[in-house]
Design goal:
293 residues, Purple Acid Phosphatase, chain A, domain 2, six-stranded mixed sheet, four-stranded mixed sheet, 12 strands, 20% helix, 15% strand, binds manganese (II) ion
């Protein structure tokens, strides 16, 4: 347990991995790309797929909040619909800001979410209850990436068991020392921020030159999913978000569904029960100067 005061008491409700059940009674799983406060598009998408809250379950893939126009509205609706999210880097940032371990930056649009009101704090506590990874018998859900050292389900579960329980608080204690497989990158950072990595799970530095698509020129860096093999993972497919720059990206064993709604792109969902991609166009470009984070 941590001794520092915690505005939200997050350390007691954070869990790193949650196993979810397959839907019953003809219900559908709706895996949903990065929302980032895009409430109008969420509503459109729900209408587009005729979302039935009595049977269907929404699984937002992290970055529910920030950069977009209505983070609070998104959280309210998701909570009301019984959505089961995972955490993204922007979600962790918002929680950290409220906990006082992180600072608001100029591009942040979450002021009203971290205002300390009872309503906001209740929404943040709900958000903080989301894990970093969800598993189904046939899928893993993760915001950004699985670590290259997780060659099997057992290795993944072992790593997640030893992952620090204080996700956003206190930052210093949530460091790699508790997480043997990841030497210098905090586990929650790796899972929620990685795009390119190497077999050891390192990140390219700021000084690595990239082409115009943001791909490092040094071939030692690869997209994380090139290290994922479903063999040790009961054949599971991985669905992830976080990578708007690449857009919808269908790999052999992975599917990226962050199509950059907040940047004026689309909001995309993958519905496994129907083998269907559904998407709606952003009503406007809410954030400019594309800068994937
Ligand atoms: Mn992200």
């Amino acid at each position: 347990m941590f001794s520092e005061p915690s505005a939200l008491g997050l350390q007691t409700i954070y869990s790193s991995i949650v196993d979810d059940d397959l839907p019953e009674d003809g219900g559908r799983r709706v895996f949903l790309g990065d929302l980032q406060g895009c409430l109008a598009e969420l509503e459109s998408l729900l209408a587009e797929i005729a979302f039935d809250e009595s049977k269907d379950v929404l699984y937002p893939l992290g970055d529910l909040v920030n950069r977009g126009p209505n983070s609070k509205g998104v959280l309210k609706l998701l909570r009301q619909l019984g959505a089961r999210p995972i955490l993204g880097n922007h979600d962790i940032h918002a929680l950290g800001v409220r906990e006082g371990t992180r600072k608001l930056s100029k591009q942040d649009t979450i002021k009203e979410l971290v205002d300390g009101s009872a309503e906001s704090d209740e929404l943040l506590r709900w958000l903080a209850g989301a894990p970093l990874i969800r598993t189904f018998p046939d899928y893993y859900l993760v915001h950004a990436a699985l670590h290259p050292s997780w060659k099997s389900e057992k290795q993944l579960r072992t790593a997640m068991r030893s992952a620090p329980r204080g996700l956003v608080f206190p930052k210093k204690q949530a460091a790699a020392k508790n997480f043997a497989k990841i030497k210098d990158i905090d586990s929650s950072d790796f899972i929620t921020r990685t795009r390119f990595t190497n077999p050891k799970g390192a990140w390219p530095s700021k000084h690595d030159k990239c082409n115009e698509d943001g791909v490092p020129l040094d071939p030692r860096w690869s997209p994380w999913y090139e290290y994922y093999s479903p063999d040790g993972h009961r054949g599971r497919f991985v669905v992830y978000g976080h990578w708007a720059q690449f857009g919808l990206r269908k790999g052999e064993n992975t599917l990226g569904i962050d199509t950059g709604c907040v940047w004026g792109g689309e909001l995309t969902a993958w519905i496994p029960e129907e083998a269907r991609i559904a998407s709606v166009r952003a009503k406007e470009r809410y954030a400019g100067n594309f800068r994937p984070r």
